[in-house]
Design goal:
The chain is α+β, with helices and mostly antiparallel strands. Among the domains are: about 40 residues; about 210 residues, Penicillin binding protein transpeptidase fold, CATH 1.10.3810.10. Helix content is about 40%, strand content about 10%. A 5-stranded mixed sheet has the order 2-1-6-12-13, with helices on one face. Helix 4 crosses helix 11, helix 10 crosses helix 11 and helix 14 runs antiparallel to helix 23. The longest helix has 25 residues. The radius of gyration is 33 Å and the shape is globular.
Length: about 725
Amino acid sequence: MAFMTLILKKLKSALKAMARFVRQHTLQVIGWGISLSFVLVGLFFLWAATLQVPDLSSIESRKIEQSVKIYDRTGTVLLYDLNKNARRTIVPLSEISPYIQHATLAIEDPGFYSHYGIQPTAIARAILADIQVILTGTGLTQGGSTITQQVVKGSILTSDRTIARKLKEWVLSIKLERVLTKEQIIGLYLNQIPYGGSVYGAEQASETFFGKHASDVTLAEAAYMAAVLPAPTYYSPYGNNKAALDKRKNLVLSKMLEHGYITAQEYTEAKAVQVAFVAPRTSSIHAPHFVFYVQQYLENKYGEDALERGGWSIITTLDADLQVKAEEVVQAKAESNQKNFNASNTGMVALDPNNGQILLMVGSRNYFDKEIDGNFNITLATRQPGSAFKPFAYAKAFEKGYRPDTVVFDVETQFSTNCSPYDYANTDGCYSPVNYDNAFRGPMTLRDALAQSINIPAVKVLYLAGIDDTLRLAKSMGISTLGSADRYGLTLVLGGGEVTLLDMVSAYGVFATGGTRYPTTPVLQIKDRSGNIIEDNSNQNGTQVIDRSVAEKINDVLSDSVARAPLGANSSLQFAGYDVAVKTGTTNDYRDAWTVGYTPSFVLGIWAGNNDNSSMVKKVSGLIVGPMWHDVMQYALGKQPAASFTRSEDTDPTVKPILRGIWQVPGNDGALHEILYWVNKNDPLGPVPSNPAQDPQFNFWDIPVRAWGASHAFGGSVVPPSPYPPGGPQTGQ
């Protein structure tokens, strides 16, 4: 401590001495500063003078000489070489439609014809935005590059993000403006700019997108081409973000109007035009939906330049062998589903729950099938999950103290407190759901209710678990697309919220691991051309998001073939010698059919339906997607040793009898009652409520249960002695 005090005293003394020196020699210090500034400025100009604009004849070939390769998880199967099949047709500026030129200038560099290569105000604005992001963690980074700078960056320099490279870019941009005309610069730009994938230049993009020459492109088509430029993968007309592309196309048109390139009438007409894109062409690419998902991942994480950097090797998480098998199964059986069930498309995703690595991704039955919009990746689209959402509500209920043996009643029930508890007609906003077979089963354990996917108990479980709490749990497990509770109400448990197949598979993986969530990733490792590791996800850390005992209960129920048996024999869900948990889901309007299942080391999910969200033939999901899911799951199980879920039992005899499944107990009135008579939903493990009628759902649940008890001659000698304390609750009726 004394040593540190001495050091601080010495430092203070030195600072005081320096301050005295500056005060005494102020003019000298200023003179030295000015001299140093002149020296630095002189050195900068000397350095700038040494920079030369390369021979323009070599500019065109430089960009696509670099290559980014995407491999499977072994690093031996090449899925896609981003630049191997690069397509570009060089044309004179006179053969590129003025619409393309003006659309590009309006959105990318409206001051192109007035600046001298760089725009200091745009650079300053971008620097300030970047500083804000660094200091506050909020806001968005901005680009400050002119078209001239982009030509320099794309044709002369590498895209390394260093201060020295940026200084070179500014200097060379100014020099380029002195040796080339504006028309030559915009011509270079429009012939080299990437429009996504292997497409470079306006001519090739016009042919690829619209099947026509760049000279023949319409105003609306040109607006789309300019809209793609900031993020060619994200805004690709063949990807999942067509709505975002449409919005940006309209922004391009508004900028063209703002800068005087088009009239108000042209703007209105072009905005209303429905532009048709030609079908994507078959190319040397494997697992295209997955590859483009990886491209988007790179672009989001490293910026648009990442796709143009030379020498990167992307080792993905994809199991190429499993991917081929999945594609074969989907291709073979999805066509028959279209004929038999009016289900034209299918998506499938698998991952390793113990690390979040995506093992397969089939975004449609055929990426290149235009009739079904095959390029649309359905695994990333939001769809209603039907009963496949139920395990999240049951998991939350188990977390609060309910058990697989807990009993609720499957009886016709009105859940809307704005309606009469006797009204089951679902008029005027009433909510009285039915089961898939229109039957009601009376008392059911939560085990049987979840295994057999019975709706009435599921709605009751969601109420007991709490909608807000269930939503929070689902989101913590990886469901990223759900909104607030007031958007759904009790319909949430029957699939009222929209989710993606990828999120569902990831979230079910939390059950598989005993409650631990690992971030989903498509990339194992990224290396540069020198072998330096840029990113490594081979050892991701997980986060415990639910208690292991809760996950064990869900796993035990979903793998219980005996509890599932009343659904009928379904060989597609059975695997001799393997412990497999599985849940199906079908939406009420038969627009979506799901099956998601897992082992301790593998999760596989499948969706079937139509991209336009039209209904299928009224069949349960097991018939539509079960056989496909089974074939791929069986193949995957053969690639790994059998493993079993861990199981634990609740044996505490002090827990309320109703939570342990003892339901044949009359209340003080001698009648049979639903669970809300015995538990406070906000404190299920606490005392029996003294006035259960305070719960707004009590009468709505209890009236049909009392009626069921009366109709089944409940009473007399079959009633065991009450295990509850004397007195019991009052119904308040």
